[in-house]
Amino acid sequence: MIVSIHFEDDQKTVQVEANQRLTQICDDHPSSILFGCRCVACGTCLIEIVSGMENLTPVLDEERILLDVLAPENPNIRLACQCIVQGDIRIRVAD
Ligand code: FES
């Protein structure tokens, strides 16, 4: 299945195979999203899901702990390094 990922900051949409890590997609299609550790330690990759939250793999415990510290008020925030894309999404770098 092919899915669309729209990067709001870069005003571009890429189409990729579903079930890829967002890190891999961003490596293949450079965007404004930056990565540091890639392992739920730094928080560099914080993104806001504008639409399609249901098309990402669920938040696991380790990510939840960091999200509760970095973005406790916003349920639309994810760590891009922990997301596997299963359907269309629109994303942007979190403030
Ligand atoms: S890149 Fe460090 S938490 Fe995602």
Task: Note down, in words, how this protein is organized.
- With 95 residues, the chain is α+β, with helices and mostly antiparallel strands.
- It has a single domain (2-93), classed as Ubiquitin-like (UB roll) (Roll).
- Helices cover 18% and strands 32% of the residues.
- Strands 2-1-7-4-5 form a 5-stranded mixed β-sheet, with no helix packed on it. Strands 3-6 form a two-stranded antiparallel sheet.
- 22% of the residues are buried.
- FE2/S2 (inorganic) cluster binds next to loops.
- Residues 35-38, 40-45, 79, 81 line the site of FE2/S2 (inorganic) cluster.
- This is (2Fe-2S)-binding protein.
- One of its GO terms (molecular function) is iron-sulfur cluster binding.
- InterPro entries: 2Fe-2S_ferredoxin-like_sf (IPR036010), 2Fe-2S_ferredoxin-type (IPR001041), Beta-grasp_dom_sf (IPR012675).
- Residues 1-95 form the 2Fe-2S ferredoxin-type domain.
